[in-house]
Amino acid sequence: MPYIQFKTLESVVSSFDLNVEYTAHLFSQTPPITPSDRLKEIIDEGLDLAIATSTEKARSELLIIPIGDS
Predict the structure, then answer these.
(1) Most CB within 10 Å of its CB: which of 1, 18, 23, 53?
(2) 6-14 contacts: CB < 8 A, separation 24 or more?
(3) Separation of alpha carbons 59 and 67, rounded Å
(4) What gap in Å lies between CA 65 and CA 11, rounded to an integer?
């Protein structure tokens, strides 16, 4: 089932019979980082086309894979 079919967290929980555990302030001790110029470049180059595509696979090819190759 493609990600796009899940519109809410509740629909995912229901479909997969999951339990959700909420942790307050899970990342509160993690300092923010500034994205590298290369990451910004990758996103700028692929974002418009990724948004326009109709499949999750195409989006990952345009956004996620270039980050792993950097």
Answers:
(1) 53
(2) none
(3) 12
(4) 28
CA-based nearest residue to 51, from 40, 62, 42: 62
3-state DSSP call for residue 53? coil
Structure tokens at 4: 């796009």
Compute CA 11 distance to the chain's CA centroid, rounded to the nearest angstrom: 18
Place of tokens 């942790």: 23
Residues in the chain, total: 70
Q: Tens digits of per-residue pLDDT, 3-55? A: 778 889 999 999 999 999 989 999 999 999 999 998 899 889 888 888 898 88
Q: Which residues contact 61 (CB under 8 A, 6 or more apart)?
A: none
pTM over cut 0.70:
no
